[in-house]
Specification:
The complex is a heterodimer of chains A (589) and B (224). With 589 residues, chain A is of the alpha+beta class. Chain A is built from 21 helices and 21 strands. Helix content of chain A is 48%, strand content 22%. Classes of the chains: A alpha+beta (589), B alpha/beta (224). Bound molecules: adenosine-5'-diphosphate and magnesium ion.
C-alpha cells in the first residue's frame, strides 16, 4: 500500500501543471465552501444567541387572560419561576426574562413620535461576560446605564440618539408617554431621560428602555404578577424543544375552585366550582344534573349560581335570593367578597348538596383571577368531586394549557381554533423559537441554500476536473498500465494507484482551501458595513460579517470532498485497470 | 521438459468489418533452458505469439499450455499471478516505470509478490543490477539512461523474480547494432547463469547468430 502511494504521489508531481490547475480549482471550491459554511454558522449564532435572545427567547411561556381583550398576565410569578427552576437543569439555562413592552405615543419638546417601551430587569444578577455584552450593545454615550435603576428619578429612560432627535429631547428632559395599560385603560406617564445610546442595532433604535418594575407598574401589573416569560438557553438548538416539552408537562393545570364562606340566613363553608360554557360541557351538565327547583336553562345562565339542596336549607336560600361569598386571597391581607344570585338548587350526594356551589365560568374566572385564592393551601379545605363524578369533565381548570406545536403554521392554526372556542379561563402556551421566530429562522434556509450552491460548485469542479484529468493521465500512461499489468500487478492495485492519486491531490487541495478560507474570512471581517435601515443589517455583528468556523465542520467538509473525489475517480480508474494488457502495450501516441 | 506447449493456435483480431488473421494455426513446443529466437518480417505475428505465450493475450482457437496448465481456463487474477511468478518481459521500447529509479524498477515485481522482506528484495535487486553492470546507476531515473542501459534495467527486472521464461519482443530493435549485440550477449549470459528460458523475437537476420534454436514465422504460420 505504501508502495502504491509512493507511485501515486510521484505521478502527481510528474504532471505538475495539470494537477496544480485542478488542485487550485479544488482549493478554491473548498475555500468557498468553508467560508460559506462558517458564514452560515456565524449567522445562525447571531440568530440563536443574539437576535432571538432579544426577540422571543428560545423557549417562551405566554399567558392570555380575559375574553375580549387578551391580557398577557400570570397572577403568581413565583409559581411559574419555580416550575422553570424545577424543570430545567441549571447548566442548560442562561437566563429567564419577563418580556414586557408597550406601544406608546411619546411627546418630547414640541415633537412627538411613536415608540416602543421595553423593560429591562436591573435587579437581576448577570455574569460579567453578559454584562459586558449588554454594555457594548447599549453603548451609552451620554448619561449612564446604571441610572435606569434609580428610584429618585421618575421613570428613568434610555433612548437612542436618533429617537432623542426625533423627540427633540436631551439628557434630563422629560418625555410624556401615553399608552394603554393591560386592562385597556388609557394612561399617561412621565419619563426622565437618563442616557442616550449610540448604536446601530436596528432593533434598539426605536426603543425606550426603562427598568422592568417601572414599566410593570405603568402597565398595571402588581408585584406578584408577571408578563410573558422568555427563557434563554445555553444550547438552544439542542435543548429548546425538549425544554418546552418538559415545561408543558409540568404546567398541566389543576382544578379551579374558590374555597370560602357563604352568608345567607346563616354562615357555611363552601367550595365554588366553575362549569364550562362550551356546548360539550353544557350537554354533560344537562344530562347529569338533577334540579330540585328551577329550570336548567336558567340555571346554566351567566348571571347566577346553583347551590346544593342541603346548603340551601342551611343558609335559607331559594331561587332568586342573593347570597354573599367571601374568601381569603393569596396576595392580600383582607378577605375578598362578592354577592351573587341563586338560579337553582340541585340534588345529589350529601357532600355535594352540602358543600358545592356551581358557577358559570364567565362569572367565576373574573373573581378567581382578580383575587387569586391560595389554591395549594385551600386544597384541604375544599371539597372537589372525584374525577369519575358525572360532570367533572365539565368543570374548569386553573388555566387552559394549549397543546404544543412544532411550527409557526401549526401555532397559527392552533390560535384560530382557540379563538373559536371562546375559552373563558386564562390560556397558557409553551412555545419555542421554532414557532415564534420562524421568520428569522427562515434565514437559515437561505443560508443553507448558499452553502448548497457552494457544494454544487465544488461538486462540478471535482467531477469535471477529476474525470478530465484522469482521462488525460490514463491515455498518456496507457503503455505504462500495460507494462505493470504484464509484469503482474493486479487490476485492483492499478485502480488504487489512480484513486490514491486523486485522493491525495484532493487532500492537499483541501488543506490549501482551508488556509485560503481563513485568510478570506479574516479579510472579509475587516470590512465595516454601515447599514442603518437595511434589514440585512441583522446579519452583522458589530457592523462586521461574522464567521464562525468549526473544527468538526471543516473535518466533515474535507471528508465529504474526498469522498466525492474518490467516488468520481473510481470509474475511470476501474476502466484503466480493466484494459487488456496486450492492447495497452500496443498503444502508441 | 516442455515448458510451453502450443497446438493449433489461431488468433484473429476483429478490425472493423473484417478480421485480421494474425496467427493461422501454430504448433510449437519450447524446452526448459532454451535460448530461442522467433524471426519474421514485420506484421508476421511475432508479437501476437509472444503475447499469447506470456499470458497477456488469449488464443482465438487452439491450446496453450504453460507448465501443463491450460491458460485459457484461468481467471484474470490467476493469470496475473502466473505472469508475476513465472514470466519475465522485455519490451522493444524498454517500458520502465518513469517515476521509479533503477533499483526501484528492478524491485517492482518483487514488491508485487509481497512475500519477501525489504532486505531480501534489496539484496536480490542489487545482485541483478550488478549482473547487468549498472551498479553505478542504481539511483538514476530511466530518463537519465541511454537506450542500452534502459534495456539492461529491463533485463534485470525480467529476471529478478527468477521466472521460468523470459519473453523479449524485438529487444534490440530500438538500439544501434553494437548496443543490440551487447544486449543479446547479456541475455545469453543470463540464460547461462540463471538457467532461464529465453525467447526473443526479431526481424533482423543479423542477430540470429546468438540463437540456439530458430523458429521462422511468416503470415501467421511457422515455416519449417
Ligand atoms: N489489436 C489488434 N487489432 C487488429 N489487428 C492487430 C492487432 N494486433 C496485431 N494486429 C495485426 O496482426 C498482425 C500481426 O501483428 P504482430 O503480431 O504485431 O506482428 P509483428 O510483431 O510480427 O510485427 C498484423 O497484421 C497486425 O496488424
Ligand atoms: Mg511486433
Amino acid at each position: 500500500m505504501k508502495f502504491l502511494l509512493t507511485i501515486s504521489l510521484r505521478n502527481l508531481l510528474r504532471q505538475k501543471r495539470r494537477n496544480i490547475f485542478l488542485g487550485s480549482a479544488m482549493a478554491f471550491g473548498v475555500m468557498i465552501l468553508i467560508t460559506a459554511n462558517s458564514f452560515s454558522h456565524g449567522v445562525s449564532d447571531i440568530m440563536f444567541n443574539k437576535l432571538i435572545v432579544y426577540m422571543t427567547g428560545h423557549v417562551g411561556i405566554t399567558f392570555n387572560e380575559g375574553t375580549g381583550r387578551r391580557i398577557p398576565i400570570f397572577r403568581d410569578k413565583e409559581r411559574i419561576l419555580k416550575v422553570i427552576q424545577n424543570n430545567i437543569k441549571k447548566d442548560e439555562i442562561a437566563d429567564v426574562d419577563e418580556a414586557i413592552g408597550m406601544f406608546c405615543r411619546a411627546i418630547g419638546n414640541g415633537k412627538a413620535d411613536n415608540v416602543v417601551v421595553v423593560g429591562i430587569d436591573m435587579s437581576k444578577q448577570v455574569s460579567e461576560e453578559l454584562e459586558k455584552e449588554y454594555m457594548e450593545s447599549f453603548n451609552v454615550v451620554e448619561g449612564s446605564y446604571d441610572d435606569l435603576a434609580r428610584d429618585d428619578i421618575e421613570n428613568p429612560v434610555l433612548l437612542s440618539r436618533q429617537k432623542a432627535e426625533s423627540l427633540n429631547v436631551k439628557r434630563n428632559d422629560v418625555i410624556r408617554i401615553r399608552f394603554q395599560n393591560v386592562y385597556g385603560q388609557d394612561m399617561a406617564a412621565r419619563a426622565v431621560v437618563v442616557g442616550l445610546m449610540a448604536n446601530d442595532n436596528l432593533f434598539m433604535q426605536g426603543v425606550l428602555f426603562v427598568e422592568l418594575k417601572n414599566i410593570k407598574k405603568m402597565m398595571g401589573y402588581r408585584p406578584q404578577e408577571c408578563g410573558n416569560i422568555q427563557i434563554i438557553l445555553k444550547n438552544p438548538v439542542r435543548d429548546a424543544v425538549k425544554t418546552a416539552d418538559r415545561l408543558h408537562e409540568a404546567l398541566n393545570p389543576g382544578p379551579a375552585f374558590i374555597a370560602g364562606t357563604v352568608r345567607g340566613a346563616a354562615k357555611a363553608g363552601v367550595t365554588i366550582l366553575p362549569f364550562m360554557a362550551d356546548n360539550d360541557s353544557k350537554r354533560i351538565m344537562r344530562e347529569s344534573f338533577k334540579l330540585a327547583s328551577g329550570r336548567l336553562d336558567d340555571v346554566l345562565a351567566k348571571d347566577g349560581v346553583m347551590i346544593g339542596r342541603r346548603l340551601a336549607g342551611l343558609i335559607g336560600a331559594y331561587p332568586g335570593s342573593k347570597i354573599s361569598i367571601s374568601f381569603k386571597p393569596r396576595f392580600a391581607d383582607k378577605d375578598a367578597s362578592f354577592t351573587c344570585k341563586v338560579n337553582g338548587i340541585f340534588t345529589g350526594p350529601p357532600d355535594e348538596e352540602e358543600k358545592l356551589i356551581y358557577m358559570h365560568e364567565s362569572l367565576f374566572y373574573k373573581y378567581f383571577y382578580s383575587n387569586l385564592p391560595d389554591i395549594i393551601k385551600d386544597k384541604d379545605k375544599a371539597y372537589i368531586p372525584p374525577d369519575d363524578s358525572p360532570f367533572s369533565k365539565a368543570l374548569g381548570t386553573e388555566w387552559v394549557l394549549l397543546d404544543r406545536t412544532a411550527t409557526t403554521d401549526d401555532a397559527t392554526k392552533k390560535e384560530a381554533q382557540i379563538a373559536k372556542k371562546k375559552i373563558k379561563a386564562m390560556t397558557m402556551d409553551v412555545n419555542t423559537m421554532y414557532e415564534t421566530a420562524s421568520d428569522v429562522l427562515k434565514l437559515e434556509g437561505v443560508l443553507n441554500l448558499v452553502t448548497l450552491i457552494a457544494v454544487l460548485i465544488l461538486f462540478f469542479i471535482i467531477v469535471l476536473g477529476v474525470i478530465n484529468t484522469l482521462r488525460m493521465s490514463i491515455r498518456e500512461r496507457t503503455r505504462e498500465i500495460g507494462t505493470i499489468r504484464a509484469i503482474g500487478m493486479q487490476k485492483r492495485d492499478v485502480r488504487s494507484i489512480f484513486i490514491l492519486e486523486t485522493v491525495s491531490l484532493t487532500f492537499f487541495a483541501s488543506i490549501c482551501g482551508v488556509v485560503l478560507a481563513f485568510i478570506v474570512m479574516e479579510l472579509l471581517s475587516l470590512i465595516k458595513f454601515n447599514v442603518v435601515d437595511n434589514p440585512m443589517g441583522i446579519l452583522l455583528l458589530n457592523q462586521r460579517l461574522h464567521f464562525l468556523p468549526t473544527i468538526s465542520g471543516i473535518i466533515f467538509n474535507i471528508l465529504f470532498i474526498i469522498l466525492i473525489a474518490a467516488a468520481t475517480a473510481y470509474f475511470p480508474s476501474r476502466r484503466a485497470a480493466a484494459m487488456s494488457a496486450a492492447d495497452a502495450l500496443r498503444h502508441y501516441e | 521438459m516442455d515448458i510451453i506447449d502450443i497446438k493449433g493456435l489461431v488468433k484473429n483480431y476483429p478490425l472493423g468489418e473484417t478480421t485480421v488473421h494474425a496467427l493461422r494455426g501454430v504448433d510449437l513446443t519450447i524446452q526448459e533452458g532454451e535460448f530461442m529466437s522467433i524471426v519474421g518480417p514485420s506484421g508476421s505475428g511475432k508479437t501476437t505469439l509472444l503475447n499469447i505465450i506470456g499470458c497477456i493475450d488469449f488464443a482465438t482457437e487452439g491450446s496453450v499450455k504453460v507448465h501443463e496448465t491450460e491458460i485459457t481456463a484461468l481467471t484474470d487474477r490467476e493469470v496475473t499471478d502466473l505472469r508475476l511468478h513465472k514470466i519475465g518481459f522485455i519490451f522493444q521500447t524498454f517500458n520502465l516505470i518513469p517515476v521509479l529509479d533503477v533499483i526501484e524498477n528492478v524491485e517492482f515485481p518483487l514488491l508485487l509478490m509481497k512475500n519477501q522482506s525489504k532486505g531480501e528484495i534489496r539484496k536480490r535487486a542489487d545482485k541483478l543490477i550488478d549482473e547487468v553492470g549498472l551498479s553505478e546507476y542504481a539511483e538514476h531515473r530511466p530518463a537519465e539512461l541511454s537506450g542500452g542501459q534502459r534495456q539492461r534495467v529491463a533485463i534485470a527486472r525480467a529476471l529478478v523474480t527468477n521466472p521460468d521464461i523470459v519473453l523479449a519482443d524485438e529487444p534490440t530493435a530500438n538500439l544501434d547494432s553494437v548496443t543490440g549485440a551487447q544486449i543479446l550477449e547479456l541475455m545469453k549470459k543470463m540464460n547461462e547463469i540463471e538457467k532461464t528460458t529465453f525467447i526473443f523475437s526479431t526481424h533482423d537476420e543479423h542477430v540470429l547468430k546468438y540463437a540456439q534454436k530458430i523458429v521462422k514465422i511468416k503470415d501467421g504460420r511457422i515455416e519449417r
